[in-house]
Amino acid sequence: MSDQSKIPQATAKRLPLYYRFINNLHIQGKLRVSSKELSDAVKVDSATIRRDFSYFGALGKKGYGYNVEYLLEFFRKTLDQDESTPVALIGVGNLGTAFLNYNFMKNNNTKIEMAFDADAGKVGTEVGGVPIYHIDQLEDKLHDVGAAILTVPLSEAQTITERLIDSGVTGILNFTPARITVPEGVRVHHIDLAVELQSLIYFMKHYPLDNEDDAEEE
Ligand SMILES: NC(=O)c1ccc[n+]([C@@H]2O[C@H](COP(=O)([O-])OP(=O)(O)OC[C@H]3O[C@@H](n4cnc5c(N)ncnc54)[C@H](O)[C@@H]3O)[C@@H](O)[C@H]2O)c1
């Protein structure tokens, strides 16, 4: 979307969260939502929500709230919900299998189209309706795939990353503990559950949420 560059990154990160909730409201036939309702549901303080929504051109009215349909339309366009984004997953082990079985389509048009593994026993099978190819076929199969989910062992992460980038992948969701090195222009989002859990416990201890006004914007 042309206006997307105006949205601050912290706001953009919350978009999928808002989208999911607003979409549910829409399915339930709700026409309006207040920032308080949203705040309770998505656990973002209402002042932040009001500021975020002002970037979307959605100006809530006192006692009226926000128009659900308008927001939904905006989020759909901004998140490219109308356009399917093909994704590949590398490493169909414990974590990879769980992701393939999880149907991302429920919430948006992000779809894992194909998966790769080095284990010959898995190649040629399907998990969650997604075909599994041998990792040797990566370069042959990865057409038009822009993003990849990395769930291989730590030791394989960098080599696989380089092959993905050579095949045109420009976004990697990295679940391995490896700090992978990528050239400029390739975006890596690193998700480490151990770090997330540690951080949650730290925040629970040091920033107890007994008053919603204390909640700060990240
Ligand atoms: N982010 C997290 O919170 C979190 C949690 C658990 C595991 N992990 C990490 O995610 C990764 C996967 O974990 P897991 O428990 O699913 O491991 P796993 O051993 O169950 O799965 C790894 C899969 O990768 C495949 N593989 C190995 N080498 C490959 C290669 N060169 N190309 C393609 N596939 C290859 C294996 O055959 C296997 O199916 C690990 O790096 C692990 O540390 C992250």
From TrEMBL:
Gene3D superfamilies: NAD(P)-binding Rossmann-like Domain, Winged helix-like DNA-binding domain superfamily/Winged helix DNA-binding domain
Record-listed NAD(+) binding positions: G91, V92, G93, N94, L95, G96
Entry keyword set: Cytoplasm, DNA-binding, NAD, Repressor, Transcription, Transcription regulation
Chain ranges of the CoA-binding domain: 80-179
Keyword Cell inner membrane listed: no
DNA-binding region: 17-56
Compartments, as annotated in UniProt: Cytoplasm
Keyword Glycoprotein listed: no
Record-stated family: Belongs to the transcriptional regulatory Rex family.
Subunit structure: Homodimer.
NCBIfam families tied to this protein: PRK05472.1-3, PRK05472.1-5, PRK05472.2-3, PRK05472.2-4, PRK05472.2-5
Protein's recorded name: Redox-sensing transcriptional repressor Rex
Gene source species: Aquibacillus rhizosphaerae
Gene name for this UniProt entry: rex
